TrEMBL record:
It catalyses: (6R)-5,10-methylene-5,6,7,8-tetrahydrofolate + NADP(+) = (6R)-5,10-methenyltetrahydrofolate + NADPH; (6R)-5,10-methenyltetrahydrofolate + H2O = (6R)-10-formyltetrahydrofolate + H(+). The keyword NADP applies. Belongs to the tetrahydrofolate dehydrogenase/cyclohydrolase family. Keywords: Amino-acid biosynthesis, Histidine biosynthesis, Hydrolase, Methionine biosynthesis, Multifunctional enzyme, NADP, One-carbon metabolism, Oxidoreductase, Purine biosynthesis. Its EC number is 1.5.1.5, 3.5.4.9. InterPro entries: Aminoacid_DH-like_N_sf (IPR046346), NAD(P)-bd_dom_sf (IPR036291), THF_DH/CycHdrlase (IPR000672), THF_DH/CycHdrlase_cat_dom (IPR020630), THF_DH/CycHdrlase_CS (IPR020867), THF_DH/CycHdrlase_NAD-bd_dom (IPR020631). Residues 6-121 form the Tetrahydrofolate dehydrogenase/cyclohydrolase catalytic domain. Catalyzes the oxidation of 5,10-methylenetetrahydrofolate to 5,10-methenyltetrahydrofolate and then the hydrolysis of 5,10-methenyltetrahydrofolate to 10-formyltetrahydrofolate. This is Bifunctional protein FolD.
Amino acid sequence: MTARIIDGKAFAEKVRAHVAEDVLAVKSKYGITPGLAVVIVGEDPASQVYVRSKVKQTAEAGMNSFHFEMPSDTPEAALIAKVQELNADPRVNGILVQLPLPKHMNEATVIETIVPEKDVDGFHVINTGLLAIGDKKAMVPCTPLGCLMMLQETLGDLSGKKAVVVGRSNIVGKPMAQLLLNANCTVTIAHSRTADLKAEVMAADIVVAAVGRPEMVPGSWLKKGATVIDVGINRIPAPELGEGKNRLVGDVDFASAAEVAGAITPVPGGVGPMTIACLLRNTVTATCRQNRIDL
Ligand SMILES: NC(=O)C1=CN([C@@H]2O[C@H](COP(=O)(O)OP(=O)(O)OC[C@H]3O[C@@H](n4cnc5c(N)ncnc54)[C@H](OP(=O)(O)O)[C@@H]3O)[C@@H](O)[C@H]2O)C=CC1
Ligand SMILES: Nc1nc(=O)c2c([nH]1)NC[C@@H]1CN(c3ccc(C(=O)N[C@@H](CCC(=O)O)C(=O)O)cc3)C=[N+]21
Ligand SMILES: [Mg+2]
């Protein structure tokens, strides 16, 4: 079997085009331009790449983009003050604080400072709780939301499917499992203490890998025809591309997995572009709710 490649890049372009139409409608009917503020603390080069594409795509969708860079030794109180300023700024409809934060900061404290209505990442405990009770008002974390959209596009109704999520972080694994549960999948969450990861993966119709370990899931672990969503973004040395060069790989061994899976997302060009598209979508949703606009 050779898997169908789920083209996240093309799908994300469609989502962004739709977002741009909604932005135009909000502007022309209500005179409001949605605004997204991105705050990055420190100079992690990988983070800088995502932040640059977020800023660029926000502008391309016709939204205002506010970009703040703070040095890595910024006191936590100064970051909190910045978030409070953005909370109070009516031009700002969405706030994203790039994670991870420097070690001297408590990420939860910073995230809980964002007003839930502007929490376009969906990381605030209020949004986490709303998602857990299946309330439509939840701001849903962008990466899991993008994964769900690709799964629904590939499989249609997900009811009754056996899904395994490998990874249980608050930003990817847990909300992903929650979304799959809300979509009526039978969900297993696997993690570093899982006794027999291979057996869990082999039983699944849907595999979402969000671990951060390059190519750890081989094709030999997959059920034939499974749908595979690879969230991992890992930069590994690629001497074949030249001295000192790197390449991007996922948490799934793409070559062997594509022989067994029914459909699979590539890295790059899968989950990553959908994450940013969903961030723009969430920013428009937040803008409409804050202004009681019903598009
Ligand atoms: N494409 C995108 O838009 C995004 C991509 N990412 C990428 O997704 C990946 C995961 O990110 P994130 O969730 O933040 O990562 P975390 O490091 O926060 O979580 C990793 C999870 O994987 C589990 N894990 C680690 N080792 C193993 C193992 N050997 N077997 C099974 N489970 C294991 C951990 O288990 P335990 O809890 O027991 O420690 C943990 O739950 C990374 O590659 C990241 O770069 C992240 C966000 C967005
Ligand atoms: N508050 C917060 N929210 C986030 O959503 C968040 C974060 N912090 N910290 C970092 C992770 C990671 N993340 C990615 C988004 C897009 C791509 C992406 O577009 N990747 C391209 C490739 C980019 C490249 O070449 O490096 C792709 O997969 O095709 C990757 C990773 C969002 N994150
Ligand atoms: Mg993490």
